[in-house]
Structures are given as C-alpha cells and as structure tokens.
Amino acid sequence: EPEVTQTPSHQVTQMGQEVILRCVPISNHLYFYWYRQILGQKVEFLVSFYNNEISEKSEIFDDQFSVERPDGSNFTLKIRSTKLEDSAMYFCASSDSGGALDTQYFGPGTRLTVL
Amino acid sequence: ILNVEQSPQSLHVQEGDSTNFTCSFPSSNFYALHWYRWETAKSPEALFVMTLNGDEKKKGRISATLNTKEGYSYLYIKGSQPEDSATYLCANDYKLSFGAGTTVTVRA
User: Fold this and answer.
1) Residues in contact with A63: Cβ distance below 8 Å, sequence separation at least 6, in sequence order
2) Phi then psi for B84, rounded to 5 degrees?
3) What is the pLDDT of residues A25-65, one digit of tens each?
4) Do the chains contact at A108 and B95, CB–CB below 8 Å?
C-alpha cells in the first residue's frame, strides 16, 4: 500500500542552524501539508501546498519557514534559523484532492531537537 | 482555526470490554470530521471521514457517530483488544484542526 515517507526520523541541530526536513508523498497525490506537534501539545497545521505554491499557511509558518517541491517526488520543509521552540515532531501529509472530505495520509514524522 | 476538544485524555480498558470517547467541535462552520488512530512511532492512520449529521461509520470493531448540530462525535471500540491501544485523534476542517487525542490502553 502506498505510504508517505519522511527523512530523517530524528534530527538534532544547534540553535541558529538551518534544517531541511524531507518527505516523499504518495505518488499520485496533488496536495501536500506540513504539521507539527510540540511535546505535550496538539498537532498543529503549518502549511498546505498545491500546484507548486503555498495555498494556506498558519501564523506559525513565518518567514523562517519555507516549503519546496524540488522535483517530482520530494516535498521539503526548511527552517532557516532554528530556535529552541522549533523542537517538535514534524509530520508531512498528502491527499488526492484538497477538500475537507479528502483523507490526508500522514508520514511517520521527523523529530527535530534544537539544542 | 476551529477548537476541537477530546475527552477523556486517556482511558484504560480491560480486554474484551467496550469503550467510547468524545470529540467536540464548534457546530458552526462545520466542514468534515476526521478520526485518526495513532500508534507510537507510526504514522497516524485515517479511520473515518464524517460529514453529515447522524452519520455513522464502521470499520471492524470500531465505529463512530456524528452530531453536527450539537458539535460532537463519539468513537466506539467494541470488544477491545490489546492491538487497539493507541491515541485516537479527531480533526475538523480541511486544515485539520486536531484535538489533543484520547490515549486508549487495553489491558490483557
């Protein structure tokens, strides 16, 4: 069964460093998303992406964040200058269509630890 | 962002017993409700998408109901098994505003 994959599973970085989290969505999906979960808190929406551009973003997704689909298979989240509060589990998801009724399929997450 | 709340936060169930728990959400501006099952170190797994008031969905021993007028959904597990142990998340809206989850532990 097709699945969303994410790499790395765990990333440790120093504050101020740039990180790139990678995702390979399900191959025929057109909509892509990033979510994060800070330890002990709810899973939060960050951004949705369609047709090579951001379709929606939350207030969390500030200028330090960017997303890209550099080729036909990968979808990346870049954090330019990491802060301690960026430590979280980051989930990628993809869906066939972008509507509220469409199921989003999630990857297993990347745990980002900022020291 | 729509506020989604889940209760209880956690529950322990004896194997073979049935259980249920709640997801509540603002009834205005309702789009759809999603239920996910999330086991530790795995991807959240989609269980149901529910849209209509009175909707009822079933997948094996797990079922869910939806009341959009009063803004709640119940998830039921019938005859709980140890493999049902997981965190169950509900989410509203196409941007998936998640609740905090209900963590179910089934004791053998």
Assistant:
1) A80
2) -80, -10
3) 999 999 999 999 999 999 999 999 999 999 999 999 999 99
4) no
Length of chain A (residues) = 115
C-alpha B48, offset from chain centre: 9
Contact between A33 and B34 using a beta-carbon 8 Å cutoff: no
Residue B47 to residue B88: CA distance in whole angstroms: 9
Burial B3-30 (b: 16+ CB within 10 A, else e): ebebeeeeeebeeeeebebebbbeeeeb
B76 touches chain A (CB under 8 A): no
- Edge-to-edge strands, sheet with B19-24: B5-7, B19-24, B72-77, B62-67, B56-59
Q: What is the spatial distance between Cα B68 and Cα B46, in angstroms, rounded to a whole number?
A: 20
Residues in chain B: 108
A94 touches chain B (CB under 8 A): no
